[in-house]
Amino acid sequence: MISYRISIGLFCELMAVISIDVSCWFRFSAIHAFEKPNDENALKLMNSCAASMLEHFPDIVFAYGVSDEYSFIWKDTTQFYQRRESKILSVSVSYFTSTYVMKWKDFFPHKDLLETPYFDGRIICYPRKKLVRDYLSWRQVDCHINNQYNTCFWMLVKSGKTEKEAQELLKGTLAKDKNELLFQQFGINYDKLPDMFKKGSCVYRESAKERIELTEVGNPVRKRRQRVVVGHFDIIGHKFWDEHPYVLKED
């Protein structure tokens, strides 16, 4: 995967991808006793924070998240902070972190925030939108591989195996071997697990819909509004992009 770490202020045609993730995730998830391999509330909290990012920053056109990380795609024409990399990155990370803290009780009403979460981030720039598609496809492939392995690993651990024993049992196994293990030993059909676990989460705006509102004096005004949506789709193939061409147009 080729990345371009060039200042986005120098090349206006570049699309910026900001990747944000939790620092010391294993410690943070352990302290808060997150369910393994996937804590649904923790994932929904991340999704809610990502949705807030799109609502707050209109120049973010798409976001993809899995586990403790999220990638935000900024449109290539953005002039936010005059395209200064350090400002865009610092504001994005600080806003996401603050939102995470503020929304914690919405998703964990009976669990205190025991340690301050902090996120780090980086900007990667791509000269063509096709490469952004490639990047997102790579992240979704990684999501599937990690989730399949982690599902097997934690089911083995919960069944009484040590973590070392679980690692040894899974060493060298193929995808079909892991699916067979889950079904034969635990009665789990991997294909029927929630798409949020297998495919990650996509955040985007629906196509703008026109509606009519009345002004204070009763005159009709036409307005267009886009609603931020969180979904779990295959973004490796063409179907999602063909159905949502306004999100990330091909070159």
Quick description:
The chain has eight helices and eight strands, in the order βααββαβααααββββα. With 251 residues, it is an alpha+beta fold.
Described by strand count, sense and barrel closure, the largest sheet is: 6 strands, antiparallel
Radius of gyration: 20 Å
Task: Report the portion of residues in β strands.
Answer: 15-25%
Q: Give the total of beta strands.
A: 8
The best one-word shape is globular
CATH topology of the domain at 15-140 and 198-243: Alpha-Beta Plaits
Strand order of the largest sheet: 4-1-3-2-5-8
Mean pLDDT: 89
CATH architecture descriptor text of the domain at 15-140 and 198-243: 2-Layer Sandwich
* Structural class category: alpha+beta
The helix content is: 40-55%
Q: What is the highest CATH level, the class of the domain at 15-140 and 198-243?
A: Alpha Beta
Structure annotation, total helices: 8
Residue windows where pLDDT falls under 50 for at least 5 positions: 1-8
| Spatial gap, N to C terminus | 19 Å
InterPro entries: Thg1_C_dom, tRNAHis_GuaTrfase_cat, tRNAHis_GuaTrfase_Thg1, tRNAHis_GuaTrfase_Thg1_sf
Family: Belongs to the tRNA(His) guanylyltransferase family.
EC number: 2.7.7.79
Binding site for Mg(2+) 1: 21, 68
Please provide a written account of the structure.
There is one protein chain. The chain is of the alpha+beta class and 251 residues long. It has a domain at 15-140 and 198-243: Alpha-Beta Plaits, CATH 3.30.70.3000. It has eight helices and eight strands; from the N terminus they run βααββαβααααββββα. Strands 4-1-3-2-5-8 form a six-stranded antiparallel sheet, sandwiched between helices. The two termini are 19 Å apart. The model is unreliable at 1-8 (pLDDT under 50).
